[in-house]
Design goal:
Blueprint lengths: L17 H21 L5 H12 L3 E2 H8 L3 H13 L3 E5 L7 E5 L1 H9 L3 H9 L3 H24 L1
Antiparallel strand pairs: 1-3, 2-3
Helix pairs in contact: 1-6
Length: 154
Amino acid sequence: MPADGSPVTGPALLDHAVCFAVYSAGLAFNRVYKPILDQFGLTYPQYLVMIALWQAEGQTVSELGEHLFLESNTLTPLLKRLEAAGFVTRKRDEADERQVRISLTAKGRKVLEESSCVPQQIFEAAGMPAEKLAALRSTLADLRDNLRGAVEKA
């Protein structure tokens, strides 16, 4: 959207496109996260899975996918790699054999404890006051929810 707030009627200029600002910020985040998470043997998506499991142990694959906005064809290979690294276990639910529950291992919990410095490092790299980052996070969550709602209506 142009600086004057008027709607774009032709092809959007990258500098005015909200989607490009979000996309390029995501790429920048990944570049900051990569060397930090490499120390722990994790990729950014794997790190997100580990945090989600830290918050709610024993989620099913589908619950985890919903929480992280990941399809099972993306999540399953990611979980297999985490399991091969010894960070998580995957077990069939005793009450419903169709479901697979994911849990952190002791090694997984340890790596999360060791990586507790990551949020502070990312905060420092962002170079913005906490209040501004909190407002941005809230705005982006609203945008995400609105866009998901628009897709579901279509």
